Amino acid sequence: NYLEFDDNVSDYDELEDDHNEELLESRGFMKDHCFREGSPRYAVKLLRGDLDSDTKREAALDLAIEAKFLATLSHPNVIKQRGTSGVPGHSQFFIILDKLNITLTEKRMAWREQKMKAKSGPFGLRKDRALLKTLWEERLTAAYDVARALKYLHENNIVYRDLKPDNCGFDIRNDVKVFDFGLAKELTERDRVGLDQYKASGLTGSRRYMAPEVVLCKPYGLSVDVFSFGIFLWELLAMKEPFEDYDVHKHARLVVKKGQRPMMKAYWPQYVKRLLESCWATNPRARPTFAEIYQMIKNFPELRTSSLTMTERTRMLMDRSVASLYQDAKENRST
Description:
Layout: E1 12-15, H1 21-26, H2 28-33, E2 35-36, E3 39-40, E4 42-47, H3 53-72, E5 81-85, E6 94-98, E7 102-103, H4 104-120, H5 129-155, E8 158-159, E9 168-170, E10 176-178, E11 185-186, E12 192-194, E13 197-198, H6 212-215, H7 223-238, H8 248-257, H9 270-279, H10 290-298, H11 301-304, H12 310-334
Antiparallel strand pairs: 1-4, 2-3, 4-6, 5-6, 7-9, 8-11, 9-10, 12-13
């Protein structure tokens, strides 16, 4: 039932260096491999212990699906899976991932605080326009990285289905990574019922970012991620939660049925507004592909003239990815 849907509860614990250290120390792999010069390198994702049996069964399946996808995916903006333990689908199964420092939601709140300070300027005298420009470019760059990740997934016929800032984070190099693939699905010809339309479960994802066709349990395809990206991008630029005062009833009535969308700031560039409007179009066929979104953002004037162009950033991320693979191989040979 859509009206009972809750998108704010996680079924997983993510163990890092700052809690449950005894459990971390008890894992042989974690003890030997997950710390470099005393700093944690990885995080462990496993099921929470307080779940009821039905929820635990569903969450275990989601975690097994996530492990399956991450074992085959390789992209600079997708979280890297370093290992697994246990039997997939079992309540004790867990996966080991690269540790991220901060989620995009947390970063969005930090950006908002920085913007408030920049608007008052030093000593409250005038706006810090250089900082405001930097913050805008940082948000667009984060969106660009996420678009690159989704472009890669869609090229492999994978629909992500849960795009939101909570599922993206920054690593130690400040690169954006998409994580949490428990709701991802590979689209196959067997399930196709039309052009970019497949038989798939409805009410899948997080309500605020969910495409109308998913809420209404209609066939859907890759374009549902594009809709989510539109809401996601608006959140990064506005630096506030979309539909924050909407309960499920209001969201269903105004957003899903009547096509209401978040309000855009008057001063946002027209090319940004056009991208948002095309992404969250009610008609799935009117939405752009991520290949198109990637090119649009790449060619935004702010990013073409920034200190590091998007082409240079892409090359840098690819170089880092190759270096990481080389380092992994080197460490595996030494163990």
